[in-house]
Design a protein that fits this description.
The structure is a single chain. It contains eleven helices and 14 strands. By secondary structure, it is an alpha/beta fold. The chain has a domain of 215 residues: 3-Layer(aba) Sandwich (UDP-N-acetylmuramoyl-L-alanine:D-glutamate ligase). An eight-stranded mixed β-sheet has the order 4-1-9-10-11-12-13-14, sandwiched between helices. A four-stranded mixed β-sheet has the order 3-2-7-8. Strands 5-6 form a two-stranded parallel ribbon. Strand 10, helix 6 and strand 11 form a beta-alpha-beta unit. Helix 1 packs across helix 9 and helix 7 packs across helix 8. It is globular and about 50 Å long. The chain binds adenosine-5'-triphosphate. Adenosine-5'-triphosphate binds next to helix 9 and helix 10.
Length: 316
């Protein structure tokens, strides 16, 4: 039995620590990048039983990804290897610490070949929560069908569905994305959009109005991420803002949303109130932005407990 099951594409990431255009970059560091595996690693570091899987190319990069994630204490036993397509890679260009571009080499990748009939339904059904992102349905028709199948399994088994829209406009246009994301949001129990994503989907700018436009029924929980300002939450009983933690220097903003998701889910799995769970998410998001890399900064439980005890909350 698992606390959380998740799946989606993780790629090998090549990045450089020099602030030059990619065409002048001579050396790259090999890391991994993938929203769902970031969340899985975040949860594992907080002490949860979590499973992540994907379809990987039967190649060195596929093996590297699985070993890395398994090394973080995540169950990767449901990963599937294929000879049909390679593991995807992407490159990160850092022009300034805040001006970062990514270049994907993922079209037709192994993960995009994932199919609904390849899901282990018993495995997904054994989890307390199923985490899904809006990236997977953008990969291919068959990956989109896999997302819908996983939702069907989760609903049949009473597994709570956590959905992060994670809009990637390099993978699909907003016109293509909108109806699919709206439909997936309607089916989820807990939805974690960023405020800018909420604006892209609904046209609204206020967190309350964004949620009003997205909500399908009373039982849904929404948490809207507001960057340094923290987050807005609302469920059937309560709503409010939880201020962000003070960060001395934002080293790398990427991955904050995934760390935040891990924190909110961890809090709810521990039986905390939604407000306490969001505060845990804020603490982890604030820790992650202070460290370079998507997963490197994800804290262990002891570190985040310390952060929660500190009086580092913004007063504005
Ligand atoms: P990502 O870049 O990972 O996709 P996102 O847009 O999904 O991020 P953000 O709102 O940028 O999400 O960040 C998620 C959470 O991390 C915020 O709700 C907040 O709790 C925390 N956070 C992000 N940036 C900062 C910051 N500069 N200072 C303090 N906390 C931050």
């Amino acid at each position: 039995t698992l606390d959380v099951a998740t799946f989606g594409e993780t790629m090998v990431l090549f990045s450089s620590d020099r602030l030059v255009p990619l065409e002048y970059t001579h050396q790259f560091y090999k890391q991994i990048g993938g929203a769902e595996s970031n969340v899985a690693i975040g949860l594992a570091r907080l002490g949860h039983q979590v499973g992540w899987f994907s379809k990987l190319g039967n190649d060195p990069f596929g093996r590297y990804i699985e070993k890395f994630i398994r090394g973080e204490g995540v169950d990767t036993s449901r990963c599937i290897y294929t000879d049909q397509a390679p593991t995807a890679v992407f490159f990160k260009e850092k022009l300034t610490p805040k001006n970062i571009n990514v270049y994907y080499y993922r079209k037709g990748s192994a993960a995009s070949l994932l199919r609904a009939d390849e899901l282990d339904e018993t495995y997904i059904g054994s989890a307390k929560m199923l985490h899904l992102s809006g990236i997977t349905p953008a990969l291919s028709q068959s990956a989109k069908e896999a997302v819908y199948k996983a939702i069907e399994v989760a609903k049949a088994k009473g597994v709570k569905i956590v959905f992060d829209p994670n809009i990637r406009l390099k993978l699909w246009s907003i016109e293509e994305a909108k109806p699919v994301l709206l439909d997936l949001i309607r089916q989820a129990d807990i939805v974690l959009p960023g405020v800018e994503e909420g604006q892209l989907i609904t046209g609204e700018t206020q967190p309350e109005k964004i949620v009003d436009a997205l909500r399908a029924h009373e039982q849904q929980t929404f948490v809207v991420k507001l960057g340094a300002k923290g987050a807005y939450y609302t469920n059937s009983q309560e709503k409010g803002y939880v201020p962000g933690f003070t960060v001395e220097e934002v080293v790398d903003p990427v991955g904050a949303g995934d760390g935040f998701a891990a924190g909110v889910m961890s809090g709810l799995l521990r039986g905390w109130t939604i407000q306490e769970a969001v505060r845990l998410g804020n603490a982890i998001g604030a820790i992650v932005v202070g460290v370079s890399g998507d997963v490197e900064g994800l804290p262990y439980w002891a570190e985040v407990q310390q952060k929660l005890e500190d009086n580092g909350t913004r007063q504005d």
